[in-house]
Amino acid sequence: MSTRFVATMIVALCLPVAAVSAGTVTPVGAEQCAAMKAHHVLNAGAPVGCERLAVVRFSYLDFDGRTHDDGAVVALDAVVPYVERIFATLYERHFPIAKAQPMDDFEGDDARAMEADNTSSFNHRTVAGSERLSLHAYGAAIDLNPIENPYLTRNSVTVTVAPPQGIAFLNRREDRPGKPERAGLAEAVVGVFSDNGFLYWGGDWDDPIDYQHFDIGRSLAQRLAALPPDQARLAFASAVSAYRECIARNSDKLPGKRRQTCLTAPRN
């Protein structure tokens, strides 16, 4: 059995017993760090280095119902126990994932990863179409099933869909008369992500609309990156607890209204 990363052990104390999954968390070692640099996933000037990153490995079901034991994403040390719990919960709920491999396999190219329908986290890059650093560069964002959950930009007359295969999923209804049931849509698991600190979903945005994207918020990501690791883990655990407590206090509201009420941090 693999030795769990010490961050999991520390922050797991803040999680309910049922939240501990069968996945594994390991620190990014020297060999993997060198590979990430060689494959343009970690570049000079990154806001976090390999010493602050860990690999979450997990099982997942594909769209044919087959189990895969090779799921892996790289994320910030402070959030990895919650990332582990997210994917354990998706597996328990039979939520399908097309593929989940670190961005090394795609040379850090976000477009290639999206076209492969790859679920991922850490990638030192900017926000598409800008010079602003993406929250993926902190290991504090997750992209889920990019084909089923595409990225949309628009101007006055056209909408651009990335990846292009995502055009089949512009109608976001899961159940449509005469059509096969949809699976893998992010709407079904927004609550799973928000309950584990990934409060902000790109499907809530106006332009762009990024159905695949979940993150913890820019101000919190920057704070965690600046803190020593142990303090960062405790700070994120505290943020998650505060959100869960807010949800509990607003239990009389509809789920969507509860979430809206409790989103108090900046979006990204």
List keywords for this structure.
alpha+beta, 3-stranded antiparallel beta sheet, 29% helix, 15% strand, Zn_M74/Hedgehog-like, Peptidase_M15C, M15 family metallopeptidase, signal
Layout of helices and strands:
Elements: H1 6-12, E1 24-27, H2 30-38, E2 53-61, E3 67-76, H3 80-92, H4 110-115, E4 141-143, E5 151-154, E6 159-162, H5 190-194, E7 200-201, E8 209-210, E9 213-215, H6 218-226, H7 229-249, H8 255-262
Antiparallel strand pairs: 1-2, 2-3, 4-9, 5-6, 5-8, 7-9
Helix pairs in contact: 6-7
InterPro entries: Peptidase_M15C, Zn_M74/Hedgehog-like
Domain Peptidase M15C: 129-215
Signal peptide: 1-22
What can you tell me about this protein's structure?
The termini are far apart. The strands form 3 sheets. The protein has a 3-stranded antiparallel β-sheet, with helices on one face. A 3-stranded antiparallel β-sheet has the order 4-9-7. The chain is built from 8 helices and 9 strands. Helix 6 (218-226) packs antiparallel against helix 7. It is an alpha+beta fold and 268 residues long.
